[in-house]
Each structure stands twice: as structure tokens, then as C-alpha cells.
Amino acid sequence: MADWGKALQMTFYNRKGEILLQEILNGGARKKKARHFKSLPGGGYRLKASFVSNPGEKIYGCGQYQQEVMDLKGCSLELAHRNSQASDPFYVSSLGYGFLWHNAAIGEVHFGSNTTEWTAEETLQLDYWITAGETPAKILESYTRVTGRAPMMPEYGLGFWQCKELSTNNCCKFMAIFIVFPGFCLKQLQQLFSDNS
Asked: Which one of 89, 97, 153, 194 is at 20 to 30 Å from 184 when CA atoms are compared?
């Protein structure tokens, strides 16, 4: 079994037979592994999954981080929620695939020029999901089909929802009629309308 595990290298192709993503080869001078599990006390693992990186690939997504770059190639990102960041470990590649790191663990991803490495500090298993599509819209459609789609906002929440001039009757009357306000806010709007009508 150990020999089989060392030889295994997973590769993902699109319908045209082009390589989208592949794990690194096991071995070499540093004895790297595509899937490295380190046992932790209590039964979990520290996990690292490594993939070959295409130098011309552009990577977009992974949540909301305070940074100036859109293409994440060359970036290292912490996979944890903070006051100023929201980690969503899903990205869309310019090569025509989407990748979801499906591990609810604090970790890190490094999008290097030669290797992409995902790390989970403590997890029970390796779990990721890949989808292919001809456009980013097709990739995102597959992603939301699997993870869930946001419901449509109810009609009463659409329309004029913010106005800067409270004396503008059209905007504010629309708000007062169609949007449910807490009592104190509705009372203030009614007073404003009766004063300005």
C-alpha cells in the first residue's frame, strides 16, 4: 500500500484533454509529498496538499482580503476569519476551472509560481472539489449549485432604499409605504411628511 501511495499523482483534465490541475510528483531530494498528513494528539492531522502551478495561470477569489492585487498568483493567504478579512477558500482559474478547499480548518494557501500549497492546521481528512467550465460564469454556476444559492430579496426590499434629501417626498414616501421600519423610524418619517406636505 505504501508504494501505491507514493506513486499516485492525481491529474484533472477538461473535456478537450488539457490539464487543468495536477498534484506534484512525490519524491525528489526533499522527499515532497502531494498529500502530507502529520498526526496530531487527539486523532486529527496537520495536512498539506501540493499542486503543480502553471506560471501563466491567473487566480481570482478566495474571499475578501485587504490587498491591492486581484490576481492571487504569488500571494500567501491566511485561511481564517478576522475583523478585516473573510476567507472563502474558493478560486476561479484563468485555465477554466474552479477549486474549493473544503476543510473547515484554520490554515493557509500559497499560490507560488511553481507550486500551490494548501495547509489545514487540524483536520480529519483531505477534502477539495474541482469544477471545470468554459467561462467564469459557468464555473460559478457549478459552484453555487453545489454550495447553495442566495435567495432573491423580497420585492418590498427593492427600489428606493436610501435617500439623502429627506425633504424629497417621492423617495421618502416610497420608503414609508413599502418598507417596514421599526416604530421610532416610521414615527420620524411620518412627522417629516406632515411638516413638509
From this structure: 153
pLDDT above 50: residue 15: yes
Task: Tell me how many degrees the CA angle 73-117-3 measures, rounded to the nearest 5.
Answer: 140
Helix extents (H) in the chain: 2-7, 136-147, 169-178, 183-196
Where do we find the cell 428606493? 160
Whether residue 102 is predicted with pLDDT greater than 60 in this model: the reply is: yes
Q: Crossing angle for the helix pair 183-196 and 169-178, nearest 10 degrees?
A: 140
pLDDT of residue 190 exceeding 70 = no
The pair phi, psi for residue 137, each rounded to 5°, is -65, -40
Instruction: Check if the beta carbon of residue 27 is closer than 8 Å to that of residue 17.
Output: no
CA 57 centroid distance within chain: 18
For the cut 70, the answer to whether the pLDDT of residue 188 exceeds it is: no
Grid coordinates in use for 18?
A: 488539457
Alpha-carbon gap, residue 99 to 143, rounded angstroms: 9
Q: Evaluate whether 155 touches 133 at the Cβ level (below 8 Å).
A: no
Which residues have CB under 8 Å from 14's CB, separation 6+?
A: 20, 96, 97, 132
Mean pLDDT of 59-63: 92
Residue 88: HSE in the Cβ half-sphere, 13 Å Cα cutoff: 13
Q: Average pLDDT of the chain?
A: 81
